[in-house]
Structures are given as structure tokens and as C-alpha cells.
Amino acid sequence: MFFCLACSAPVFCEEIEVDSEVISVGDEAEYFIIRSGEDAGIEIGDGFLVHRNGKKIAGAQIIEVRPTVSAAEILEIEEDEEIMEGDSVLLVKTTGVERRSRKIASRKEPEHVSTASVVEQIDLVSIDIRKDAKAVFAYAGLVLRESGYYVTSSDRATGIILARKPLELSLIKELFADAVAAIDHNVVISFQINDEGNSSTVTASAFKEHSQKGKFIKTAASRNSKHYNEAAQLLSKIKERSEY
Question: Selecting from 3.10.180.10, 3.10.410.10, 3.30.530.50, 3.40.190.10, what CATH number does the domain 106-243 have?
């Protein structure tokens, strides 16, 4: 039945179906490689299903493409399952404006984390700090830099800080070592610092951002994921620095 659901799409969108397989899985089972690429019409941002013996194992999306292989990121995985080499892949690529406006945005468009066309759901983590907003803002920037992030934008008036750092994807580097510089993978952290008088509330959100050939996708880190937990740890460090 999941094949029928996977193939369903608006009648005005053209479909290109690609059958492939998993050829390599990363150590942390977060990213993997499939045996299809640009030659099959695959683009960054394309979503697909991984299945085994007719059973759905996971949902994923393409984050990097080469002529005959592609790198993918796991978006969801069935309980008690794991992706393995040899698993089958079904990708139904819907071409047309509707798909592109939902999944892929131009680098020229605003990159604010709340852009609905890029991110559909955001899991936030917050913390209360017994310090005024100006002091918290300063310590937040310091903690980010100490943790390997570089601040791309900040506004003291609104209390917003946006920072990013490169994602280390060893599996992809092994396969695509000849063109790593042309690809950009980052984890993005957004802070909102609100003044509560003698104290402050800091809310953070984490994203994964992948870009290639002028296109990029930004996906919110899900609750209790590695990058969500990293955002929570950053908040704890900011609280410790600010209060003590």
C-alpha cells in the first residue's frame, strides 16, 4: 500500500520514478549513499522512501548529487529499523513549480529560520536566565564562537542571533573528495533573547542546511535529535556564563 501512497501526486505535476539501492551507510546511520544521481534526473531536495521486501524502512531526502551516486539524509525511520546496504529506494520526483516552491529555495531569498516554504515544523528549546538581555546577548555570542560557530547576523534591538558551522559528513567526503569545496553543509542555530526585566528568556532552534549548484534546503532538527540537543547544551552554557 505504501507504494501507492508514495506514487500519489497532484495531477498537474509530472512524475519521474527512480528505483535504486543503498550502497553505503554512515557510522552514525544519519546519512547514506544511493546508486543513482544526476544521470537519473535526481536533484538536491528530492524526497524518497527506503524499503526492504515491500516494507517501508525510512523516509529521506537528497542532500548532495553526483552523476551516478547521491548522498541522502534520513528524515524519519520506522521503529526498531535501520538502513542497510542493499536496501531498495523508490524516488518519485514531481517536476514543476509546486515541488520546487515547497522544498527548494534560491540563495537570493531570505534565509530567516521561520520561512515556511523551507521549513514546515520547528521544535524550539527555551531556558530562563537570571540576567538582563544585554548581558545574555553578549555571552551568547561568546559561547557560540567557543563552540565552533560563526555568527552570520545579530541584532541587539530584537535579540536575534543567527550562527552556523560546517557539518562534518565523513561518508560524503570519502566519495566526493574531488569536489567538496563546491558543496556546503551546515548546522544553523537561531537564538531569540527576550528581556523579562531583571531576567531573560532565550529560545533556540536548530537546522541542517545543504546547498549545491545554487539550490539549498533547510530542515529543522527534530526534538531530541543530535542538533536539537546541541542547541539545548548551548543554552545551558550561556546560562552558566551569564549567571556565574
Answer: 3.30.530.50
